[in-house]
Amino acid sequence: MNKICMTEDIPEREARSFDIENGDIIFITQRDGNFFAYQNLCPHLQTELEFLENQFLDQDQEYIQCSTHGALFEVESGKCIFGPCEGDSLEKVAIKVHSDGGIYLEDQ
Ligand code: FES
Predict the structure, then answer these.
(1) Is 69's C-beta closer than 6 angstroms to any atom of ligand 1?
(2) Ligand 1 contact, 90 CB (< 6 A)
(3) Tens digit of pLDDT for each residue in 44-69?
(4) Which residue, 8, 65, 68, 90, has most beta carbons within 10 Å?
């Protein structure tokens, strides 16, 4: 399994992006102690979500937000609840938090 980072690298209600070995760019965010990872691709135009580095959340840090047209996505499900791709979803990346505090990519 490939280690991506440590849990302390991703504070609650913040997000970080990572280039992973297969060339994909993903981001991980923490909400209520749980970690969620998605491909960094907006389902609307397949562009990267963030404009500023690691800025994946809206102003209230409640939803994931696409910086291009402002689509909002639920942190836990990746589902778009507002914007031009409403009803579509971000592509989830399977991760696991291990007892060593590392966040790992799950084997596909
Ligand atoms: S590209 Fe993300 S909302 Fe349009």
Answers:
(1) yes
(2) no
(3) 999 999 999 999 999 999 999 999 99
(4) 90
